[in-house]
Amino acid sequence: MFLSKRRIVLFGVIGVLVITIIFLPRIQYFINAPDVNAIDFKLSSVDIANLSNNTNNIELLLRFDVSNPSEKTATTSKVEYDLFGDNEFLGHGVLSYEDIPLNGRPQFSPGQTTTLKSPIVLQPSDTNIDIIEKLINNQSDSINDIRWNVNGSSQIESAFVIVQKDFNDVL
Q1: CB 81, CB 152: distance < 8 Å
Q2: N or C: which end of the chain has fewer CB within 10 A?
Q3: How far apart are CA 157 and CA 142, in angstroms?
Q4: C-alpha–C-alpha distance, residues 58 and 122, integer Å
Q5: d(Cα 41, Cα 88) in Å, to the nearest integer?
Q6: How far is residue 123 from each of residues 23, 59, 130, 159, 162, measured CA to CA in Å?
């Protein structure tokens, strides 16, 4: 007989394995995914890291405070952002941890705030020359007079899940 008890059990086990393999990513997503909407990126400070009078390039150091009020630990592999000063586009920054193993990346622990530091070099252009001149001429006072804005996204990771998180903040 073609459908013996052993074959029925074998087909049943194979069917359960196939269904488990197909639905495993969804199961892990619901079990392990942090609440990405709860994770909050805030621009906490903008400082001048290096000033080159010869080339008029300015290296700024941005600090992002990342708070995680959820109950699960998360990390990030990449943060990309656009920096604006007084509503003028200044540059595009990338903070990448993609080549670092998960256990070496910044951890967003539950109920904690983590600070990420990201350098960005401003190149003079027609659109941002006013802000660059303002920073070069009066470093200490002018940086606080500028309205800083960042728009960006981050890849939030937890266990087997990678989720995109968009953020926008004004300082």
Answers
A1: yes
A2: N
A3: 37
A4: 5
A5: 21
A6: 48, 9, 12, 38, 33
Neighbours of 132 (CB within 10 A): 19
Mean pLDDT (whole number) for 133-154? 83
Can you tell me the distance from the alpha carbon of 32 to that of 167, in angstroms, rounded to the nearest whole number? Answer: 22
Instruction: Round to whole Å and give the CA distance between 83 and 157.
Output: 24
- Rounded-to-integer distance, Cα 3 and Cα 157, Å: 46
Produce one character per residue of 31-46: b if its CB has 16 or more CB atoms within 10 Å, e if not: eebbebeebbbbbeeb
CA R_g for the chain: 24
Q: What is the pLDDT of residue 81?
A: 97
Q: Find out whether 61 and 44 touch, Cβ atoms under 8 Å.
A: no
- Which amino acid, one-letter code, is at 113? T
| Token pair listed for 139 | 């470093």
Confidence of residue 29 (pLDDT cuts 50, 70, 90): low
pLDDT bin (cut points 50, 70, 90) of residue 66 is very high
- 73 in helix, strand or coil? coil
